[in-house]
Design goal:
The chain has 428 residues and is an alpha/beta fold. Helix content is 46%, strand content 13%. It starts with a helix and ends in an 11-residue tail after the last helix. The longest helix is centred in the C-terminal third of the chain and has 22 residues, at 287-308. The structure holds D-serine (DSN).
């Protein structure tokens, strides 16, 4: 992801020692550079984040917490972890941060085992309605170790019905309520979730992975005042390295730290923690809200263009970084799977997604999930979003027309490469 010339210099040693893996990196850099990345959960990190991640800190074992490690030689990594924790607390106005979770899934596991016991009932958002695997799906630890019950979205407008959530909570009496989503386009009312949780005397866990960057920038209301524990990944709208972050009240601080280590993980990834610190610093800068605001503006512009082309959007539009296209509204026969493949061939990367009232399998689906965080990081704005909407409509109007797809592919490549992966002027 470093600019091509830098990339060659940076990888010169790897090229000599492991040409196969070197080839993978070079080809992936070209794919990212020449295509349009619209996976809603992906982003492009800054060079500073990348440098911290690809550093000597990967060599260090540091089980424990800063100042309380099980190994010697931690004086420098302690500084990195303290910076990451302090910046996370400042960024989100939380009382405590644990920056060691390797991923969002592990952050959620630590949160569960801080708040409840195996076998307890949890209430989360149904995966096929926009929830997440770790919110109780049967194929995931959360559905195996706990007893899940679900809420969804209204089929007619694609929105969470908070009265229904309350009804289910009163009826099912879960020991924990989980709020948060991976395919939901509207503001989530965390205050309402907090009220419902208090009414049944259960704690509230919010997984804000998708919207963390928008929460940091003020473009989405924060869950922190309403939840016992907030988890997130650091690599989506927050634009940091791949990894997890846990925020909580002082009351849960010791328990959450213990739930991460020694309960669930071994040594923390100190290079990733340093990169998280860098990303949090970037998110604290005045430029970050400008970026996050543009992410939302771009999603709205792309959505409006798709609607002009006759596509139906779940919920009719978006308040955040993503769009959910219900292909049944415009292309009855076209599956999410085939649409994803046709767009991929044209250099436009999105993912198939279930939609409310889905009749097809999760491997096929009737929808597409589209997100703007990554392309916004490359400096693209509303005019580019409109062009992308036009290309998507063109490709999906005849997804088997390889000549047309090849022509769009060339146009996509031309536009993409004019927005370098590292537009340094836009970086903080
Ligand atoms: N895989 C992530 C997403 O795409 O939303 C969630 O973990």
């Amino acid at each position: 992801m470093v600019a091509p010339t830098k990339m060659k210099e940076a990888l010169a040693h790897l090229a000599g020692t492991d040409p196969e893996i070197h080839g993978v990196l070079v080809r992936e850099e070209a794919r990212q550079s020449e295509g349009l990345e619209l996976i809603a959960s992906e982003n492009f990190v800054s060079r500073a984040v990348l440098e911290a991640m690809g550093s000597v800190l990967t060599n260090k074992y540091a089980e424990g917490l800063p100042g309380k490690r099980y190994y010697g030689g931690c004086e420098h990594v302690d500084v990195a972890e303290n910076l990451a924790r302090d910046r996370a607390v400042e960024l989100f106005g939380a009382e405590h941060a644990n920056v060691q979770a390797h991923s969002g899934a592990q952050a959620n596991m630590a949160a569960y085992f801080t708040l409840i016991e195996a076998g307890d009932r949890i209430l989360g958002m149904d995966l096929s309605n926009g929830g997440h695997l770790t919110h109780g799906a049967r194929v995931n630890f959360s559905g195996r170790l706990f007893e899940p019950v679900f809420y969804g979205v209204r089929e007619d407008d694609g929105r969470i019905d908070y009265d229904e959530v309350r009804d289910i909570a009163l009826r099912e009496r879960p020991k924990l309520i989980v709020a948060g989503a991976s395919a939901y386009t509207r503001i989530i009312d965390f205050e309402a979730f907090g009220r419902i949780a208090r009414e049944i005397d259960a704690p509230l866990l919010v997984d804000m992975a998708h919207i963390a960057g928008l929460v940091a920038s003020g473009h989405h209301p924060s869950p922190v005042p309403h939840a016992d524990i907030v988890t997130t990944t650091t690599h989506k709208t927050l634009r940091g390295p791949r990894g997890g972050l846990i925020l909580c009240t002082e009351e849960h601080a010791k328990a959450i730290d213990k739930a991460v280590f020694p309960f669930m993980q071994g040594g923390p990834l100190m290079h990733v923690i340093a990169a998280k610190a860098v990303a949090f610093r970037e998110a604290l800068s005045p430029d970050f809200p400008v970026y996050a605001g543009q992410v939302v503006a771009n999603a709205r512009a792309l959505g409006a263009r798709l609607v002009e082309h006759g596509f139906r959007l779940v919920s009719g539009g978006t308040d955040n970084h993503l769009l959910l296209v219900d292909l049944r509204g415009s292309h009855e026969e076209l599956t999410g799977k085939d649409a994803e493949a046709a767009l991929e061939a044209a250099g436009i990367t999105v993912n198939k997604n279930t939609v409310p009232g889905e009749a097809r399998s999760p491997f096929v689906t009737s929808g597409l999930r589209i997100g703007t965080p990554a392309l916004t990081s490359r400096g693209m704005r509303e005019p580019e979003m409109e062009r992308i909407g036009d290309w998507m409509a063109e490709v999906l109007s005849s997804p088997a027309d390889s000549e047309r797809i090849s022509r769009v592919r060339e146009e996509v490549r031309e536009m993409s490469t004019s927005f370098p992966l590292f537009p340094e002027a836009l970086r903080v």
